[in-house]
Amino acid sequence: MSTSHLLNVDGVSRRRSGREAVTDVSFSLNRGEVLGLLGVNGAGKSTTLSMLSGALRPDHGRIELDGQDFIAHPALARQLVGWLPESAPLWPELSVEEHLVAFARLRGAARQAARRAAQSIIARLQLGDLRQRLAGVLSQGQRQRLGLACALVHDPALIILDEPANALDPIQAGELRKLIRERAAAGSAVILSTHVLAEVVAVCDRVAILHEGRLRQDAPLRGEQGGTSLEAAFFGIATGTSA
Ligand SMILES: Nc1ncnc2c1ncn2[C@@H]1O[C@H](COP(=O)(O)OP(=O)(O)OP(=O)(O)O)[C@@H](O)[C@H]1O
Questions:
Q1: What is the ipTM of this complex?
Q2: Contacts 24+ apart (CB under 8 A), 66-75
Q3: 17 CB under 6 A from ligand 1?
Q4: Which atom of ligand 1 lies closest to the CA of 43?
């Protein structure tokens, strides 16, 4: 397997509840690339992302991150991966700032460095007004922004976002797109799972389509033309009418 990519996924499979949720999925991702992950409900997107985040172990296959065997060394995830799951795991009794310091510390930062990292992501995500607010009283969109900040506080090489625009207003959704491109320009690789095709066209370089646990397409996206052909490809695969 090539080690020049940041991420190499090779023949990964995982069963859940006695059924194949993800089967023989392979793809690679370079630094600076944004990959959109599409698929109908139950296609296997979250299962795939959970494996890439280190939270779920594949039954078969190999994942290589930054040239290292990720399955044998799941602790790599702590420093190299930032994961926003479908619903961000937050502690209701901790403030926004306390969350970010705690996440930075969990990722290995020393106390002062964790405080600096927290201040930096608070400023970047415009969370200053919410700094002292307890997570338990945040609105849904505010919780989502805090979850995103927790995923990014340690400046990870691989950013995994599972439906990150959920509950965001149009202004915040636009800010999210800018942030994703900014992180990619700074050298991170991003995987974005979403049901919104326009979001993929707006922000992704490549799109992968999962269906019934299998990767059915992995192709670059190119401008408006990409949007039209993406819709056709998605519906073709989802309805079983693709060539
Ligand atoms: N915690 C779990 N325990 C058992 N089975 C699960 C679990 N999570 C998902 N599955 C099953 O694995 C398969 C893939 O689900 P997954 O959540 O990965 O799909 P998805 O593409 O993320 O779907 P959605 O778009 O609805 O979020 C489904 O058949 C689902 O029922």
A1: 0.97
A2: 66/6, 66/157, 67/3
A3: yes
A4: 21
